[in-house]
Amino acid sequence: MTIRTRVAPSPTGDPHVGTAYIALFNMAFARSQGGKFILRIEDTDQARSTPESEQQILNSLRWLGLDWDEGPDAGGPNGPYRQSERREIYADHARQLLDKGHAFHCFCSSERLDELRAEQMANKQTPGYDGHCLHLSKEEVAQKLAAGESHVVRMKVPVEGTCVVDDMLRGAIEIDWSQVDMQVLVKADGMPTYHLANVVDDHLMEITHVIRGEEWINSAPKHKLLYQYFGWEMPVLCHMPLLRNPDKSKLSKRKNPTSITYYRDAGYLPEALLNYLGRMGWSMPDEREKFTLDEMLEQFDISRVSLGGPIFDQEKLSWLNASWIRENLTVEQFADRLHGWLLNKDYMMKFLPFAKERVETLSDFAPMSAFMFSGLLDLSPEDFAHKKLEESEVKKVLQFTLWRLEQQRQWTKGNIFADIKALSKAMGHKLGDFNHPIFVAVAGTPNSWSVMDSMEILGPDMIRARLRHAVAVLGGLSKKEGKRLEKEFKVLSAE
Q1: Residue 144 falls in the annotated catalytic set
Q2: Catalytic member of 253, 316, 387, 487
Q3: Predicted pLDDT at 254
Q4: How far, in Å, CA of 343 to CA of 371, rounded?
């Protein structure tokens, strides 16, 4: 048997270091066993998926040094490798489940489901579908379908007993069926959910081992049941420990930059970042901290994965990155890396026209442009002092701008300006007053050239990271304050 593993990122946002972490361990396991590693794009969320995000994922993983044997760009015998191009395959398999009585049409409105969930939460019950449409007769279903009533397809799930899931690292995991919801398999728009598409694709692509994050453990019973319904052999499961912040919370962009492109643009070496991800819950037999990808592949044994939550610590990553620079690069190679990073004409030509209009001597260029070559800026609360806005309002401006720009998928100067102008108007501030803290967050000073041009050039990952950093410099948001501002932002956005 040829070992076949896969990574299946969703192109709905910035390329996440967690994706690279899972991709690395899937590739390492497959290659160490003489097998194949597949990349599949899970873009069933058509509202949020974008070609730009997909390309960023592919570019980021390749920048790290990861490659795959089959995928949307590499081709292969088991394509298409984008789920949006496999819609008929899922529809056919959903019909098979309906015909065999393993799934059913559900016509419940979103309002009814919201009320059901609220009632269950109030009664301290596990939220889940109550089987309202489970016992509709064939005639009733046919009438509703003929009338064009909106519906989804749900899977049938046992209501009693226990599901036992075998895991490579954790052994037998027992989950009561009462804790497993009657999962939607096909959404109202006809697109499959992750659960149906995941199982069908893994089977048709002959995946032998599914190595994924531990957040998917609770979904394993649904997947095991689907394999049984289809009469297929289930791949071996292996649930990796989640990456965590230094405070042991789940790794999140609110506490740590999580985008691969942020670390690339901030000047981290791909070898160092990949080395660091390889150390997340795994160690070399000789316990050394520095190793190359080839060395990891040569020594890889998945049984050496520790289930304790690995800590993604930027300070530790920076130390390792410095070690790679000092010990592995000659001066000539260091110069080449700097040139390939951002110290090159192509990159500088994007903002040299703005700098040229502001310098008096050539030596003015370096301090004036330093923020274009930086990661997070060295800021203090005093830097954000504003003649008209209180510090709490400045923090709100920065947070609301961050939330608005997190929704922006077409990162252009025009779109950024439109977002900020609309937000400043909605918040009742003059654009100049509104832009002041944004200038400081992005450039470190309110006296830089056009902040919109800088934001476009620096890119979404770096700008969002700097805005989060600015909010943190101003004291961050308490849980209570965060919830209050989220409600206010939603109201503002709906107007």
Answers
A1: no
A2: 253
A3: 80
A4: 13
